[in-house]
Amino acid sequence: MAETTPSPTDKARRAARRTAYLCAGLIAGMAGLSYAAVPLYDLFCKATGFGGTPRVATAGASSIGDRTVTVRFDANVSPGLSWRFEPEVRSVDVRLGETKTIFYKLTNTGTKATTGIASFNVLPEMSGGYFNKIQCFCFTDMTLQPGESLEAPVVFFIDPAIEKERDLKSATTITLSYTFFPAKGSPKPLAAAKDGTGSNL
């Protein structure tokens, strides 16, 4: 039986269908990349210290240097969140490689339960690649009842390798800055926030 040659109309329909599938796949791929861009960028910043983002560490430094640096602590709350947020101390002097623990205090001064989430960075930006946090409360939803307070720990050290960074040899002060924003989504259990087991780096 002789094969039927597709008409120009059939060829045009098939071409249009292929183009539609290709466009749909391209749109889906771009949407997927857009969705993944934020966590991938966040992971890149944590791994490299890019943009003043402190690095994540699972243990302290292997050595302690002789040089001492003053670390200042900054606390901010964005509009829309009725919280008081402050560090227990404004600054500490630490030796390079020395593990230090400080606490921030949070208080809900509003009349209803609210949930906040903190972002952070360090200045000067280049020091982000050497500022290592072992534990902190950043990027974790935290819910406070009216009038409730809690203390949140930050455990960190500054990598002695900072000594090799020519542009940071004269740096005597590093500022760790947090800002709390209103959060959406599931609140974090307060018990986990208080004992540090639910902290997120």
Describe the protein's architecture and organization:
This protein is of the alpha+beta class. The chain folds into 2 domains: 9-48; 52-195, Ctag/Cox11 (Ctag/Cox11 (Pfam 04442), Sandwich). 23% of the residues lie in helices and 34% in strands. The protein has 2 helices and 10 strands; from the N terminus they run αββββββββββα. A 5-stranded mixed sheet has the order 1-7-9-5-3. It has a 5-stranded mixed sheet with strand order 4-2-10-6-8, with no helix packed on it. The longest helix has 41 residues, at 8-48. The protein starts with 7 loop residues before the first helix and ends in a 6-residue tail after the last helix. Residues 31-52 and 186-201 have low confidence and may be disordered.
Radius of gyration: 25 Å
Q: Give the rounded overall mean pLDDT.
A: 76
For the largest sheet, list the strands in their spatial order: 1-7-9-5-3
Largest sheet, strands/sense/barrel: 5 strands, mixed
CATH class group of the largest domain: Mainly Beta
Q: What would CATH call the architecture of the largest domain?
A: Sandwich
